[in-house]
Amino acid sequence: MKKLNFIASLLFAAALAIASLTGCSEEKKTEVGKPYPLQTCLVCGMKLADMGTPYVFVYQGQEIKVCDKSEKADFDKDPGKYMKKVSDAEAVPKK
């Protein structure tokens, strides 16, 4: 019985390690918003594909992408300024 408990504990620890490496977690809940209309960071304007994985969050039902979490702090200081950029981008007809 002790051997079975030990094996179960190892399997549980391995599953937790894999979940943390892949970003999976029971605590994570991904909120889905309207798709982000730009290919650039909303705060600094850099092309998102060039800087690695963007920091993604949802603001008032709209998905937002910025370079990193520090730029979300900039967004939070004046969200109206940045949301205008999103609405302007949505107003441009796609080719």
Rg from alpha-carbon coordinates: 20 Å
H/E element order: HEEHH
Helical amount: 40-55%
Whole-number total of structural domains: 2
Q: How many beta-strand runs?
A: 2
- Which spans of ≥5 residues are poorly predicted at pLDDT below 50? 24-28
Shape: elongated
| Structure annotation, total helices | 3
State mean pLDDT (0 to 100 scale): 81
How would a crystallographer describe the biggest sheet? 2 strands, antiparallel
Walk me through this protein's architecture.
This protein is mainly alpha-helical and 95 residues long. The chain folds into 2 domains: 28 residues; 65 residues, no CATH class. Helices cover 45% and strands 11% of the residues. The chain is built from 3 helices and 2 strands; from the N terminus they run αββαα. Strands 1-2 form a two-stranded antiparallel ribbon. The protein starts with a helix and ends with a helix. About 5% of the residues have low confidence.
